[in-house]
Amino acid sequence: MKILFMADFSITASDILENKKVFDSYEDVEVDVIEVNLGETKEERASYILRTEQEGPEWTSVPEEVLEKVKDAEILITDFAAVGKEIMDAAKKLKLIGVLRSGVENVNLEEAKRRGIDVICSPGRVAAPVADYTVALMIAETRNIVRSNLVSSQGEWKIRFRNFPYSHNMAGKTVGIIGFGNIGQMVAARLKPFGVNLVAYEEYMPSEKVQKLGAQPVSLDTLLRISDYVTIHARLCEATRGMIGKEEFAKMKKTAIFVNTARAGLVDEDALIWALQNDEIGGAALDVFAQEPISRDNPLLKMDNVTLTPHLAGTTSNVGSNSFAVIMEDLDRYFKGQPLKNKR
Fold it and tell me: Residues 10-25: pLDDT tens digits?
């Protein structure tokens, strides 16, 4: 049985080879690796990822060496590299596609299903880092940590900012979590010691379970109206694309902080810019953008009520080993003929 890994800039061939030993306990398993170039520059790579997220995998052509390598593969593992019809046509023996991330936008799921190819992913591989980062952004925006940085301000001793009337400590404030999956739950767990009130909107979870996990289940409309912080952790799909727009921002408190460490596509960025420019909300802390890298003429870069970071929430030095640990659980089930846990 051949497993082909498509390495890229995020999880490299070296990362895969370092973890290759986990397959030693399985008989007749051959592991092969091919490096896929998603772009020469960080701008090109970011554009590849964003376009695939928006359009799916079929827009890009596949290198001939990939098509040759995948011919005899039963399992194909990818990170960001696209897996569409062209690869599936070449991979006559393909039975399983694994994605080393929680999202599978880079796989043509409909085509895989039509061919009887299972698709698994790695939910939770960066859940903890993203949850940590989300809470950090909440505090950074409320308490002006980035704006008051003495290094970037070249020593300017500024202690008052435009948000001073609501630059409060978090105890007693209400945090609204949109999407109460792994990351949403971890954000809630990290916030509990701060003494906040937690409310959550989760369409696909029974209210009793939301409550049991530590948050008060509410409608999206209620969450937007009562929350001092709104943080979004929903999965991006056609039903959730642009789910937060001008109407939703208008419902929020004038002092509310909006946080997005999930996907840019969940939010109408123009509506967010409007809300910030017109003081419809108090501020925003963002790690994802409609265009990445962010355009130098994006109005967000000129605002003093935002904290912006370059899509770093899930970036840690151990992301590769975390990804392997998650996907290996399902690969082990596959080898043993057991039902797959993270099947999409």
Answer: 888 988 888 888 898 8
What CATH number does the domain containing 12 carry?
3.40.50.720
Please confirm, yes or no, whether 292 is among the known catalytic residues.
Answer: yes
Distance of CA 322 to the CA centre of its chain: 15
Tell me which residue range forms the domain holding 298. Answer: 127-308
Nearest Cα neighbor of 244 from 226, 224, 225 is: 224
The pLDDT, as a whole number, for residue 197 is: 98
Asked about 311 being catalytic, the answer comes back as yes
Select which of 105, 248, 280, 292 is catalytic: 292
- Do 168 and 67 lie in one domain? The reply is no
Alpha carbons 243 and 246: distance in angstroms, whole number: 10
Residue 98 lies in a domain: yes
DSSP 8-state secondary structure symbol assigned to residue 339: P
Is 340 inside a domain boundary?
Answer: no
Q: How far is CA 313 from its chain centroid?
A: 8
Which residues neighbour 328 within 8 Å (Cβ) at sequence distance 6 or greater?
Answer: 22
Q: Is residue 342 part of a domain?
A: no
Chain segment 162-211, per-residue pLDDT in tens: 999 999 999 999 999 999 999 999 999 999 999 999 999 999 999 999 99
Decide: pTM greater than 0.70: yes
Residue in 86, 141, 263, 269 annotated catalytic: 263
pLDDT 10s digits, 81-110:
999 999 999 999 999 999 998 889 999 999
| Domains identified in the chain, total number | 2
Residues 42 and 70 in one domain: yes
- 168 in the same domain as 286: yes
